[in-house]
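pasting for ref. prot 1 ->
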Amino acid sequence: MSGNEKGRKRRFGSVRRLPSGRFQARYTGPDGLTRTAPRTFETQRSSAQWLVETEAEMLRGEWLDPDAGKVPLAEYADRWVRERTLKTRTREEYERHLRLHVRPYLGHVAVNEMTPAKIRTWRADRLNDGVGESTVAKTYRILHAIFTTAVDDDELIRRNPCRIRGAGQDKAEERPTATLDQVFAIAEKIQRRYRLLVLLATFAQLRFGELVALRRSSVDLAAMELRVRLATAEMADGSQVDDDPKSEAGKRPISLPQALRGDIELHLATFAQPGRHGRLFIGAQGGIPRRRNFNRVWKKALKEAGIPDDMGLHLHDLRHTGSTWSAQSGATLKELMARIGHSSTRAAMIYQHANRERDQAIAAALDVLIEAARGEIPA
């Protein structure tokens, strides 16, 4: 039955009655291939209406190839990662999240069969299985990005099935803030080659990867300025790679408190590798410090400095500590964002680069805090 209910030949597509009594619609797509509707219909009228809607989609340029979206999510996600221009460490991170948290649960589902309900169930199951909220949020953001490509670029589906409000937001746990006395106590007790690392983590608010990537040439003693250009990342195979910081904002000059001049000069003379491009920090065996090895040194220093175990203080917490003190020293939000190298798409129109004079003023204010603390704790 290719005509309509009144017997006239149908202009677009055809409808036939199946032995079951239901109706099947067929049509020729823009690619010249004959396709069958993904479902059958109870009445001839409903099947004809579906053909009208399908023809309208083709005329508006909104028709989607129903076969293209049949690719399993695991296959599509792997291709998505391969085609992205990603830093090595970021690529490894994406692949790990997909391997551990997506492929075993959603990998077999076709892209065009993914629904908001499936995504909600997947997320709830991961959380109920004890996967950390931050990990689930990160994986959700990756999934959202993958399906955005499927909608906007590849036109495999009409809408992104990742629609859970707030699911991609990290809910960071409250981290401890050290006191000035605690910072200098740790700096005194840690291995001497890492004393300056503790101070720069605090007063320059650097990440571990940024710290171990510093070179002699990163330090301008005349201007008391640090130039951050690289970050060292540890790969899954154990190799260490110098790469760009987490964002363009991570490439930044940082004014240093004058009170650290003596510490920097002593470190350069004693521990830094020779040559302009020698590393500022090296391990006891001459290699690039690794997080795991450094953590053992860090924990020993915490114990000797009398830092309570239940405080749970990590090296990265010194970055937060220093940022807090910078704010208390008068830094504006824009200046803080520039100093710590933070950037995000949401903040791109709000946060601007701090000017050099104000950054130096922040460092000068930190000087006051350092000198006050050193009045009680020797450098």
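and prot 2 ->
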Amino acid sequence: MIVEYVEKGGMIVEYVEKGGMIVEYVEKGGMIVEYVEKGGMIVEYVEKGGMIVEYVEKGGMIVEYVEKGEMIVEYVEKGGMIVEYVEKGGMIVEYVEKGGMIVEYVEKGGMIVEYVEKGGMIVEYVEKGGMIVEYVQKGEMIVEYVEKGGMIVEYVEKGGMIVEYVEKGGMIVEYVEKGEMIVEYV
């Protein structure tokens, strides 16, 4: 190889030809940083905790790529938070820390679905008709919670029907649609 050393801003920069590209090595904070031009962009490689981390400027932001197991994980700073993007089952999943919890966002059928672990269960939040709907798995059923007129309404599928539970005067009232009527059970 032909190695070229150039002094740049008080540092010695090393240039090496690697696979037809010119690679630039610079010492930065005790580490050797490698710069490569890739598709018109300058990519920076740094060794971090035994892994090679790749930094790329994307849309005015610095994006960090790390290989985790078989996946490439992308980290982006968004609104003062570090957002992690992972490809999972053909979808891009976004992880954000929110109030001490890791929240997972997935696009599902044109909607953004939010997953949060709550009391050992995974809770799914979806915006539906301008409201936030919460889905929780209870036993074999998926229970849907919606805020309605200041109350939390619980919807459960029971025997092929949707049953609505509302707290009324300290009691749980069950509403079932029967034919054209709504029947109230107390």
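DSSP finds no helices and 19 strands in the chain.
Residues 4 and 94 are 42 Å apart (CA to CA).
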